[in-house]
Amino acid sequence: MTSNLPLPILYSLRNCPYAMRARIAIYYAKQKVALRDLVLTDKPDEMLKASPKGTVPVLVTEQAPDKIVVIEESLDVMLWALHESDPDNLLHSETPHLLSEMLLLISQFDNEFKACFDKYQCAKRYHEDSLESDRKACEKHITDLEQRLQFNDFFMSNKASLADIALLPFIRKFSKVERQWYLQSPYPKLRAWLNNYLQSRMFSKVMTQYPLWLENRELVIFGGDT
């Protein structure tokens, strides 16, 4: 992206895990975007015109004069950001085969874990008898992460990767469902991994609360700082 083009626009929802991981990748990539925070009950017409499916995140970027590209999936936004700039080498460019392994792990969480987690969260909310069995279904995936952290500081190696930041918002949500159980659960490595992120400057920046864009349509620049 050349400097004379307008900033990419990111439509986002502060607590949505998909929007959150898009912002995390943009933060690490040190990319600047025009952030437009919204609520799902009041979606901007501009966003719906760009992406009729009406879910976040949505990134609208002008790649060249009169060439607009719309990126509608959180993982694609992450990859866009890190292909633009990856100062922390989250894509592990020196070991290209790891990217396919990262994408496989992310896919498993986006599909298999997410399905289990939705049932677990609902069981807790509605006091259903299936709470324990739904949690155990989630734990199959959580156990895999704990085992990975027995050997490395992060999921793929001793360096943070795309997989770590893609899974982070979902592990955070999992940790909140049954808080007391989680704090006493047999996953100390995962707790330490999560706490490291939650206490970081990155997380503070990513979770900053901004005015909703539709309230005043003011420009909010996110990312690009150190």
Concise structural overview:
The chain is an alpha+beta fold and 226 residues long. It has two domains: 100 residues, Glutaredoxin (3-Layer(aba) Sandwich), CATH 3.40.30; 104 residues, Glutathione S-transferase Yfyf (Class Pi), Chain A, domain 2 (Up-down Bundle).
Report on the architecture of this protein:
This protein has 226 residues and is an alpha+beta fold. It folds into 2 domains: 100 residues, Glutaredoxin (3-Layer(aba) Sandwich), CATH 3.40.30.10; 104 residues, Glutathione S-transferase Yfyf (Class Pi), Chain A, domain 2, CATH 1.20.1050.10. The chain has 10 helices and 5 strands. It has a 5-stranded mixed beta sheet with strand order 4-3-1-2-5. Helix 1 packs parallel to helix 3 and helix 5 crosses helix 8. It is globular, with a radius of gyration of 18 Å. The two termini are 20 Å apart.
Sheet having the most strands: 5 strands, mixed
CATH class of the largest domain: Mainly Alpha
Name of the CATH architecture of the largest domain = Up-down Bundle
* Proportion of beta-strand residues: 5-15%
Helical amount among residues, as a percent range?
A: 40-55%
